[in-house]
From TrEMBL:
It is an enzyme of class 1 (oxidoreductase). This is ferroxidase. InterPro entries: Frataxin, Frataxin/CyaY, Frataxin/CyaY_sf, Frataxin_CS. It comes from Leptocylindrus danicus. It catalyses: 4 Fe(2+) + O2 + 4 H(+) = 4 Fe(3+) + 2 H2O. PANTHER family: FRATAXIN, FRATAXIN, MITOCHONDRIAL. One of its GO terms (cellular component) is mitochondrion. It is found in: Mitochondrion.
Length: 179
C-alpha cells in the first residue's frame, strides 16, 4: 500500500509539473509530437494528452504560416518537378560557364567551380532539400500565398538564395521566372 501511495504522489507531482514538449510539424491534420521530460517516458506518456496544447499549423521563422500541405503525393510531385525543371532551364539558358546541370529522378545536380549544388525532392516530407557548398544544407516547403519554396528556418526563398549564390560564383545576375 505504501508503494501505491508513493506512485500516486509521483504521478500527482508530474501532473503539477508539465513535461517539456517539442512540437513537430503536423501533416494531414495528424497529431505527431515528440516528448522529452526529466521523468520516465512511461509516466510522462500517461499524462501526455493533459499537457499538450492544441497543435497549430506550423509556419516559418518569418511568421508566414501559409505553408502548403499537399493533399496528394501527385500534387507535390507536380509542383516540385515544375520547380526543378524551371531552375534547370533557367541555368542552362543563362549561364554558359556552368560545368554541368543534370536533372534525373527528382534530383537536380549543378557542378560549379565552388562545388556541387544539389536540390532534391523529399517526398515523405513534401519538401525540397538543397545542399550548397556556400550556404550548406537547407529544407524548403512550398508557400501557397507567395508561390515559392520557403526555407523552414528563416523564411528565405529558394530561388532568391540560389540567385545570390549564382551571382557570388559566376558574377552574373540571373532572374528565375515565376512558375
Amino acid at each position: 500500500e505504501t508503494q501505491t501511495h508513493t506512485t500516486a504522489m509521483m504521478n500527482h507531482r508530474l501532473l503539477l509539473r508539465p513535461p517539456i514538449v517539442q512540437i513537430l510539424r503536423c501533416r494531414n491534420n495528424a497529431r505527431r509530437s515528440m516528448l522529452t521530460t526529466t521523468a520516465s517516458r512511461k509516466l510522462a506518456c500517461c499524462n501526455f494528452k493533459q499537457h499538450v496544447l492544441p497543435l497549430h499549423r506550423a509556419g516559418t521563422a518569418s511568421g508566414n504560416n501559409c505553408i502548403r500541405e499537399f493533399n496528394t503525393e501527385a500534387e507535390f510531385h507536380q509542383r516540385s518537378d515544375k520547380t526543378l525543371q524551371n531552375i534547370q532551364e533557367c541555368i542552362e539558358d543563362n549561364i554558359d560557364e556552368i560545368e554541368e546541370v543534370c536533372l534525373a529522378s527528382g534530383v537536380l545536380t549543378m557542378e560549379t567551380p565552388r562545388g556541387t549544388w544539389v536540390i532534391n525532392k523529399q517526398t515523405p516530407n513534401r519538401q525540397l532539400w538543397w545542399s550548397s557548398p556556400i550556404s550548406g544544407p537547407r529544407r524548403y516547403e512550398y508557400n501557397e500565398e507567395a508561390g515559392c519554396w520557403i526555407y523552414t528556418r528563416d523564411g528565405g526563398n529558394l530561388k532568391e538564395i540560389l540567385e545570390e549564390e549564382i551571382l557570388a560564383v559566376y558574377g552574373q545576375q540571373i532572374d528565375f521566372q515565376d512558375e
